[in-house]
Design a protein that fits this description.
Length: about 160
Amino acid sequence: MTLSRLTLLLGAFSTLLILGALAFEYFGGLAPCEMCMWQRWPHIAAAVVGIGGGALLLGDRIDARYARAILILVIIAIAVSGLIGIYHAGVEWKWWAGPSACTGERVEFTGLEGINDKGNVRCDIVQWRLAGISLAGYNAILSAAAATLGVYVLWKRRAA
């Protein structure tokens, strides 16, 4: 697989994760917390750089000598989102403290109106799990796998 195609593939991967998050939000009714939003930004960057850079590289609009650098940027963005996912999952499992803006012991019940408004969703309370893993956990797992694939391909190409 060429670096250009892998860049495009990883950009598409990040796009699919963002679309999945949006589907859970808009069709599944799960409002994102602050930390959920933090995980989205690196994937958005990876999607834009990966798809845009990959397409430009494949169309010979960018010199092929930049393919490695562009791919590394995409891998870093995906890895950052995965690391935030690990942090978020740890907050959900109460392994460590999260940001005080969206976690804590204090609970104020003010009724159901606006409960899913931005800023009202707790980062330390899981809204959805599958096989015991939250969406933050799945982002961590999938992002780690994608970033590892990218690093592996770069390493194999360098060794060859």
